[in-house]
Amino acid sequence: MKLKIDEKPFLPEGRHVVKITEVEEGKSENKNVPFINCRLENEDGFVNQRFYLSEPGQPILAAFLKAVGIDKKEVDSKELKGKTLSVEVEERSYEDADGKEKNIKQATHFAAAGEADTSDRY
Q: Which residue numbers in the chain have pLDDT < 50?
């Protein structure tokens, strides 16, 4: 049997410099909260990260925008594609609306590429 793989693997846990290669808009399945989903990738793999456009999500989105060099109150999500930043990839568990435990990889600790402090990792 021949296997053809057209996808990169998920990025392993740890710090990575990534480029935003895709930005999609959507709404959450349960509460209809708008979000943008960014595909963050490099030559080693990728991680998808959702940013909810809700009040609790504002600080997270603000940190992300600062890391990619955008410092304005309003931005078109299309402007994000092609931007580079440093992220930390980690795995976390959460309970979905049906009470089932889910595991996801997520990007956190956003920093401008080249400015992330990794001194505590080595």
A: 119-122
